[in-house]
Design brief:
By secondary structure, the protein is mainly alpha-helical. It contains 29 helices and no strands.
Amino acid sequence: MKSRLSDDFTFPFVIKACAALGDVKIGKEVHGVVIRTGFEQNLVLQTSLVDLNARTGCVEVARQVIDRIPQLDLVPWNALIAGYSSNGYDWEALEVFREIVFSDLKPNLSTLASIVPVCTRLGCVNAGDKSIAVWNALISAYTQRQEPVLTFELFLLMLLVNIRLNLVTFVSIIPSLESFTCLSLGESLHACVVKHGSENQLPVLTALVSMYAKLGAIDKSRYLFDQLPSKNLLLWNPMISGYVYNGQWDLSLGVFREMQVSRLNVDAVSIISILSACSNLEADLLGRSVHAFSIRKGIHSNLNLSNALLAFYSDCHRLSYSIKLFHNMPLRNAVTWNTLISACVHHGELEEAVALYYQMQNEGFKLDLVTLTSILPACSDEENLGQGMAFHGYAIKHGFASDISLLNSLISMYCNCGDLHAGRLVFETMPERSVVSWNALMTGFKNHNLQNEVIAVFSQMMKDDQRPNYVTLLNLLPACYTQLQGSLFMLWQLE
């Protein structure tokens, strides 16, 4: 055993030395010894062998080693990209980079340090369309992976190496700016669009309208929208959804009417946005008219639209309509089930919610995080504790048990079912907590008249620098049953 441990540590150093010296012959001999002695499955050794073969130009062997690694992390991938890059295999390096982007791994600075020279060389050698296509593909991939910081870093690198930007570049990069809360960054990108003469191109303009709406600058969206005399559906839809996103429901309805006056054929996206406005306005009659309109236009069978209708009828307190619509739907997905389960729980139809949960399982749908978070409030008293524990077990088995929203729901479930110890245990083992976590535990103690426990949790909350909200205060007030406690609480609130 001692000898084996020694080899586990010795081989990587020997392989690293061969790589540093560029000694292919000795490197191959060491590789052979590793295989013969049965150490090839060691991840550290496999990574060292990838690095050795990549550095010494044996990139095909390096790729073969990587293909035999069952659980890859980023280190061997970076070694392979560096090997491809340093040996002139630029397109192969780019293909490996694409594999990383579309896997569960996140490229780091070492990855970018190897791939940027590759992209630069491809830009110099293959001037014109092929060069910009490479960069645009990278930016688009990062945007799809929802990696806004890395997307913007690549965009800045494009500017630094003087790659000529085009329409596809801007259409790919602008959506990533929606994830930032920095309006000035969006305005800077808009200025870059103007500088490159792309401000009047409809796809770019549409992306900018959507970006400004997501950044809360809906007036800027409207200004850009009004600049174009001839508008198509792709421009009307983000303007309508932009008003909905910013809570300006009446204005979204106004734009929808303008759109109808312009004699454009609306699509499911338009209707979904309008239904959201109707839900928030609780405009029952108008929403039903929109439903009838969608039937007349022949788009009511669209799955996303049907799901939006389920939510609309639930929000307007017409759960029976939602259930009837659900049973008439030819197609359903997880969103369909989750929407109706959540609606049943919200309207107090707890047995119906649990029945839907089991029906969803029986019909072969995978239960996801949203399903579990939706169904847990149905377990609201002692007789539902076993059911709630079963849901908790399912969450652990399927890897959902670290999600903060689900854990908050579990705290509430256990407290509602009378198992305060389990609720506290979930709280104490959470990797991170939000104000909702603290409030869930405090609410549980308050509902069981454990006022001293409420105050103790609040004190710990203050020590952990967690800022309370109005729910915290509502939980705390009943616990302040003496004049002195009440006065101290009022003083804290004034601060």
